[in-house]
Design a protein that fits this description.
This protein has 429 residues and is α/β, with parallel strands linked by helices. The protein folds into three domains: 163 residues, no CATH class; 174 residues, TIM Barrel (Alpha-Beta Barrel), CATH 3.20.20.70; 57 residues, no CATH class. The protein contains 16 helices and twelve strands. The strands form three sheets. An eight-stranded mixed β-sheet has the order 1-4-5-6-7-8-9-10. Strands 2-3 form a two-stranded antiparallel ribbon. A two-stranded antiparallel sheet has the order 11-12. α12 runs antiparallel to α13 and α14 packs parallel to α16.
Length: 429
């Protein structure tokens, strides 16, 4: 006997997660961010409140995800290729489940989403992609993406799972392993302030023993002046203490840094101090996230008041050059964010020469060449992130599209700048 469709319900998904976890199965252990004061961050700024989830809620979400996976397996979705679109088949099955729930008088759609009608148009774009309470289709697509990607990874959110008791995480991981035995890697976001001040090395070892493999830390900068400017709530020393303690506990660590975060005035200090911090903490991965100033953030207010002057793209590239030149440890530098201009990545120190050559090729372009490079890069990033161009972007770049590629011969410098801005405003960080 097959699964009764009205029993199937959506579950809460971590919309905010590292790009490396885009195809991971995700579960929310907490909701939102208890700090939520970083000046550059647009996330959780519209009434979202931090809360810890009850263990029963989390285990119920795992049960719901398992039921969705089993139902798709019954219909051979994501298991064997039928020569068609697996996601379209999953959408049809999700719609059938919703109909069955309505006919049974049950709500299968989850909590209603916050309206984006009064949100800044740019933030409304991002809000449309981040669902606090996913609908049935989103839940089915999420599980299918994980299954198609191999079904081996799981991410727990939201912003800092290190605040939880290790026993809580152990129970969740054990339940995921029981329900989804193919999962081999478990990861979380963490704050270095939590690891440094609220967790002992024994606590962090207990997380590893519970099955946690990696912590993603948003360092942003190793410069205290920059950390204070953006109200990160942590010092470079605390960054180092939390990171080193986590590494000592045997957990893999990813460090996220944000070129451009110091603006024009702190650019050189930001890059040099960050390189020194990375050298000291020796992360497994350094991941670049170029600064974007979002509407209605404290950093935008500083920019409007003249207290923060944004670094231009060339200055940001020079910051990345400093990182590549001055990081003196074995690590992997990744440029896995659509906001980044250059695809500079590789192993340090082995690939340092090749990465610097890529940077110098850009810096060697004249002003017009840099503009054309930037627009080409942004168009490519947008295609890679969304699979096509939106109407407003097409209006800007459509006149330059040719069958053989892009031709900017008739575009003015202002035309190129406008196209770059329109695309950057829609790229996910």
């Amino acid at each position: 006997m097959g699964i009764e469709l009205q029993r199937v319900k959506p579950f809460e998904i971590c919309s905010i997660r590292p790009p490396t976890e885009n195809s991971s199965l995700t579960f929310r252990l907490t909701r939102n961010c208890y700090w939520n004061r970083c000046a550059f961050c647009p996330v959780y700024k519209y009434g979202a409140r931090f809360s810890r989830r009850d263990i029963g809620e989390v285990l119920e979400d795992i049960r719901r995800a398992k039921l969705i996976d089993d139902l798709m397996f019954e219909h051979s979705i994501g298991v064997v290729s039928h020569g068609g679109d697996e996601f379209a088949r999953a959408d049809e099955l999700a719609a059938a489940v919703e109909r069955a729930c309505r006919e049974a008088g049950e709500d299968g759609a989850g909590r209603p989403e916050m309206t984006s009608a009064d949100i800044d148009p740019r933030l409304a774009w991002f809000h449309s992609w981040f669902k606090d309470s996913p609908d049935m289709t989103h839940a089915f697509r999420h599980v299918l993406s994980w299954r198609i990607a191999g079904g081996r990874t799981c991410f727990f959110g939201d912003a800092d799972s290190l605040i939880l008791n290790p026993d809580f995480l152990r129970r969740v991981i054990d339940h995921v392993k029981l329900s989804f035995p193919s999962v081999q890697r478990f990861t979380v976001y963490g704050r270095t302030a939590t690891a440094a001040g609220k967790r002992s090395t024994a606590d962090l070892e207990a997380f590893r023993e519970a099955g946690l493999d990696r912590v993603h830390f948003g360092l942003e900068s190793g410069c205290d002046a920059v950390l204070s400017l953006v109200n990160k709530g942590v010092s470079s020393q605390e960054h180092a203490e939390g990171f080193l303690k986590t590494r000592e506990a045997g957990l893999s660590c990813s460090a996220y840094v944000m070129p451009g975060l110091g603006g024009k005035s702190l650019s050189e200090e930001h890059a040099a101090d960050t390189a020194r911090l990375i050298t000291r903490i020796i992360p497994d991965f350094v991941r670049l996230r170029t600064l974007e100033i979002f509407p209605n953030t404290p950093l935008e207010e500083k920019a409007k008041a003249g207290e923060f002057i944004e670094a231009d793209e060339e200055q940001v590239v020079r910051e990345i050059r400093t990182l590549v030149e001055e990081i003196d440890c074995r690590t992997v530098l990744m440029s896995d964010s659509a906001t980044n201009l250059l695809d500079v990545q590789g192993r340090l120190p082995e690939d340092r020469k090749n990465m610097l050559a890529e940077i110098e090729r850009y810096l060697g372009l004249d002003a017009r060449g840099k503009l054309e490079f930037s627009l080409r890069s942004r168009i490519s990033s947008f295609y890679g992130q969304y699979g096509g161009l939106t109407a407003d972007i097409y209006r800007e770049v459509g006149p330059y599209l040719r069958q053989e590629g892009l031709d900017f011969t008739r575009a003015s410098d202002d035309d190129l700048r406008r196209g770059i801005v329109v695309i950057r405003e829609k790229l996910m960080p």
